[in-house]
Design brief:
Blueprint (H helix, E strand, L loop, with lengths): L6 E2 H14 L8 H12 L3 H6 L5 E2 L1 H15 L5 H5 L1 E4 L2 E4 L11 H15 L3 E5 L5 H9 L4 E6 L2 H13 L5 E6 L12 E6 L32 H10 L3 E10 L5 H9 L4 E8 L5 E8 L2
Parallel strand pairs: 5-6, 5-8, 6-7, 8-9
Antiparallel strand pairs: 1-2, 3-4, 9-11, 10-11
Helix pairs in contact: 2-4, 6-7
The structure holds glutamine (GLN).
């Protein structure tokens, strides 16, 4: 029987790193990410891999798997989260794939703000528009007193991910996904106490400036039209028909969009601008709007 060729993990890695730096195929390389990718491929944890670099031998199929994952990461600039299939957000872990935006740390401020108002105002029902992976609505469901949550997205593939995340995070509330372009499939008989949204908000001209990694995220989840604010307009145009008295809308916004959004809010007698919360980088990030009927 032919003996299978096996390569020591440490030798494989050294060789790989040499090549990638020599050929300058990638401007960026992280050994931590590399260990995570290998751990995922060998179905072990990262620390185990680190401690056993000198005694793990790779067979042909391991090498093929690991090489293809490393290629995705370092040649194709696929974000690590898509390769590992997960991302931590708030107090949960979310499954992600290329059909959803990867949950961002900045968005945790949207979740925190919503939880604060839900508990303070004893809100019962929540609508999460442009839910994507479901991370906003699900983290709010799991960490507030809300009882009913609807997650809406225009992408069927995104909603598959959101549905999985409802199960993975064991949500014990009345929660469901709805395939709809914003409010189009919703009924005004069914009103909510609070609407939250992290819609696509990147301005058309800024799309080309996004990093190679972000360019591998769904454009549908990023592009906010010429002004970046098209979804805020569309949501505010309709939201008042779907809100209960004393209800509220909370948006995540682009760092330079507050003034534009204040102007949009002022066009409607239904809403009052309450405040804006900054992210950890000091940028305007979350806008709170109250519904005045
Ligand atoms: N904050 C995201 C980014 O960094 C954009 C998210 C969005 O468009 N809603 O690209």
């Amino acid at each position: 029987r032919e003996k299978m060729k096996k390569i020591l993990l440490k030798d494989f890695l050294n060789n790989y790193m040499d090549n990638i730096t020599k050929e300058k195929k990638s401007s960026y390389f992280s050994s931590d990410e590399c260990l995570r990718i290998i751990a995922k491929s060998l179905n072990k944890d990262k620390n185990y891999i680190y401690l056993h670099l000198n005694d793990i031998y790779l067979n042909d199929s391991d090498i093929k798997n690991i090489s293809s994952m490393l290629k995705k990461r370092y040649i194709e600039n696929i974000p690590l989260q898509y390769i590992l299939g997960k991302q931590n957000f708030f107090k949960e872990e979310y499954m992600v794939n290329e059909n959803v935006l990867i949950p961002r740390q900045d968005t945790e401020i949207l979740v925190e703000t919503a939880i604060y108002y839900i508990n303070k105002n004893k809100y019962v029902s929540l609508l999460d528009l442009c839910t994507g992976s479901g991370c906003v609505g699900i983290s709010i469901a799991n960490n507030s007193n809300i009882s009913k949550v609807d997650l809406v997205d225009i992408s069927e593939n995104a909603l598959k991910v959101a549905s999985k995340n409802i199960c993975l995070n064991d949500v014990k509330k009345d929660i469901k996904v709805i395939l709809s372009d914003l409010f189009t499939k919703l009924n005004t008989n069914n009103k909510y106490d609070i609407i939250v949204s992290n819609p696509p908000y990147i301005k058309e001209k800024d799309l080309v400036k996004l990093s190679k990694e972000v360019k591998n995220e769904p454009i549908l989840a990023l592009a906010g039209g010429k002004s970046g604010t098209i979804f805020y307009k569309k949501i505010l145009e309709n939201a008042y028909g779907y809100l209960n008295k004393n209800g509220m809308i909370i948006f995540e916004i682009g760092y330079d969009e507050l003034e534009d959004i204040k102007k949009i809010i002022a066009e409607y007698e239904h809403y009052t601008y309450i405040n804006c919360i900054k992210d950890l980088g000091g940028n305007d990030r979350v806008v709170v709007i109250s519904f005045i009927g």
